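Notes taken during the Thursday session

The instructor put the following on the board and asked us to keep it in front of us for the whole hour. The protein is Oxidoreductase with FAD/NAD(P)-binding domain. We were told not to look anything up and to reason only from what is written here. First, the residues (378 in total):
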Amino acid sequence: MERFDAIIIGAGAAGMFCSALAGQAGRRVLLIDNGKKPGRKILMSGGGRCNFTNLYVEPGAYLSQNPHFCKSALARFTQWDFIDLVNKHGIAWHEKTLGQLFCDDSAQQIVDMLVDECEKGNVTFRLRSEVLSVAKDETGFTLELNGMTVGCEKLVIATGGLSMPGLGASPFGYKIAEQFGLNVLPTRAGLVPFTLHKPLLEELQVLAGVAVPSVITAENGIVFRENLLFTHRGLSGPAVLQISSYWQPGEFVSINLLPDVDLETFLNEQRNAHPNQSLKNTLAVHLPKRLVERLQQLGQIPDVSLKQLNVRDQQALISTLTDWRVQPNGTEGYRTAEVTLGGVDTNELSSRTMEARKVPGLYFIGEVMDVTGWLGGL
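Then, after some discussion, the predicted structure tokens were revealed:
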């Protein structure tokens, strides 16, 4: 049986970065993954350009039942440290909105960077390998793989969550945690589009592809200001993905489709200046024409001129466009979710080392833990 100082299971971002650091610190490291290539989810991120970090990383942008857990890790390795690494590898990047950093070229550059860092640490890769069993004794851990048995002193689980099963996601990490007596919190899809109840979906499907700036508020008061996208299945876009992590089944969300407009003032000013102008054309100054036309067809926007718009209908219109109350039917689930909420209870882990308190030598890192960041490189 071949032995290593450390075995890391999962060749995603967390697994490769951990392997590289351990290898460069002089440890003999084996990195195992069930895929053909490392970093498959990285390649999908940021529209293929990898939103690799954010200029405004802060603990408040992470969800966990233990909200203080991530503070230590974020303080010990910051976004600036990762940017330095990206710069060292000569990867050109740019900032989009809200501090989001993307590669100028391709997400493959980030994968290549992490693989290169692993190679500098002489990390051994074993891809297309399934871990059949894990056992622990006084010498460490023994892993049965398809085709070989390996052992180690330190075992790191970096197998991620359940999102994007097409890229190999599985509950493996949760099963290992439970095997060794660690608590695993219930999981659900996060950063995921909403589906709608059939009547509303049928009304809005013709708007598929229409995007609009918005402010979306969850019932718990969490607010996100980003674009909303109408789809054939419901609602998506950055604002919806963000709020989905805070939404619970049965709850409503409030959507402001005109976050940059004082609608009452705007309508009053336009009425004084252009009393005979249609309400539809007036609203089309700030909203997509397709959206205005559909809302008028649905009776949400009166087919009148500005001078014909009475006070009651104006107040109803303002409510419709700035406090549109939607009760999602659900989400699209793990198939399209970018992250998994829940996971290994962080109260079971050291916030400094990620080591399981009950099982010396066993570590959990990355999305398998109950720590989930916002959209945008967090």
